[in-house]
From TrEMBL:
<dbReference type="Pfam" id="PF16005">
    <property type="entry name" value="MOEP19"/>
</dbReference>
<protein>
    <recommendedName>
        <fullName>Embryonal stem cell-specific gene 1 protein</fullName>
    </recommendedName>
</protein>
<comment type="function">
    <text>Involved in the maintenance of embryonic stem (ES) cell pluripotency. Dispensable for self-renewal of pluripotent ES cells and establishment of germ cells. Associates with specific target mRNAs.</text>
</comment>
<keyword id="KW-0963">Cytoplasm</keyword>
<dbReference type="GO" id="GO:0005737">
    <property type="term" value="C:cytoplasm"/>
</dbReference>
<comment type="similarity">
    <text>Belongs to the KHDC1 family.</text>
</comment>
<keyword id="KW-0694">RNA-binding</keyword>
<dbReference type="InterPro" id="IPR036612">
    <property type="entry name" value="KH_dom_type_1_sf"/>
</dbReference>
<keyword id="KW-0217">Developmental protein</keyword>
<dbReference type="GO" id="GO:0003729">
    <property type="term" value="F:mRNA binding"/>
</dbReference>
<dbReference type="InterPro" id="IPR031952">
    <property type="entry name" value="MOEP19_KH-like"/>
</dbReference>
<dbReference type="GO" id="GO:0010468">
    <property type="term" value="P:regulation of gene expression"/>
</dbReference>
<feature type="domain" description="KH-like RNA-binding">
    <location>
        <begin position="11"/>
        <end position="95"/>
    </location>
</feature>
Amino acid sequence: MGARREQNDIPPWVKSPEDLKDPEVFQIPTGLLATVFGPNGSRIPYLEQVSKTMLELKILESSNFTEVVIYGSYLYKLRAKWMLQSLAEWHRQRQERGMLRLEEAMNALELDLGFSEASS
């Protein structure tokens, strides 16, 4: 997902070299990659087209995070960063709510699979 692009692969809305300078960078939990960017990054072309940016993903070896690098004009980079961070946070909260519901259902059935801290 994070291979560097050749000059021919740069989307037409990204004006090189000025839009390739000073990218916006943020980190996303690696576990959320598929939900935000699709399986094997299949949603990246759509996200790039909608945001008028170019995205590059760099998996960080020493952590559970992936670096998202956003290239484009200043306002488009900021908008894309906000959009992707919001999407990642929404998915994170959705997963958290699902785990809480699962724990509540298991507690209602009096099952304990080690999710709660009070298992003694």
